[in-house]
Specification:
about 45% helix, elongated
Length: about 325
Amino acid sequence: MKQSARKSRTAVHGRGMAKLISFDEAERLFASAIMRPMTSGQRMQRKWIDGRSMREVAAEFIKPNDRLTSYERLEIYNKQYWFRLVDCMYEDFPGLLTVLGQKKFDALITEYLTRYPSSSFTLRNLGWRLVEFIEAEPEWTAPRQKMALDMARIEWAWVVAFDGEAKTPITADDVRSRDPERLRLSLQPYISLLELDYPLDDFLISLKKVEHLRTEASATCSHEVCVPKVPLPSPEHVYVAVHRFENWVYYKRLEPEEFAVLKGLQSGLTVAEACSLALNGSPDESEDLSDLARKISDWFATWSELGWLVLPDGS
């Protein structure tokens, strides 16, 4: 009976003598080797995780050829894999690159990818812990840690908005005759509500107007990237929703009260409870309350038109 490919034993050569390892062992070694970070000189590391020479380890599961040693053949795959990860970070975080400059950005993402290597079948998720990393270790983005943190948040929100899950938006029939004291609505999963210390929505729009920013970053990820000369924004407290409409990602600036209502809905409050949050800080005068009521009505009309509102799971 034939053995399956998975369980077969493979003869490889290390230090001049044959050694049998399973296909699974060879596969694990290969994956572990190519996923390791490269050195600062963009070369494969010379030592394995147990301290052995990387040349010795490579010879255990890769044969040399007439031009390249086992180590050199493995290094090609290591570089291809690592440059692809770096390329993805350039594509997803061009604003952060601009804020930090290439040298600091490269140091940041090298440390980040070392700490949080890809663990998903899709590289789309590669940067999902970058905000957490910048918060926990501000030294990598100093002295612009606050701006860098806001930038990582809004750029990750862009990734989420681009291809995040979409649910069926509510219709008038879904909420007709429902008591707002008991009615709960939620937001589309692809929407991110951000309170920022810098107007990075406007900054990113300006940044994207710089010709070939993303393509240049992608094409030259292993070389010098021309960081655009775009003036960094001054501090300004803003509220922004990052969302998707007709397959395009948009930044929508929000009023503080509007942001409060949306956050309330997102956190599970009833419509009445969420709307009451808009009253915080408003003078208790009938004219002002009447204006606020009209605003809330207009907000809900806009949100419905954009398809933002959905019924919570189980409703």
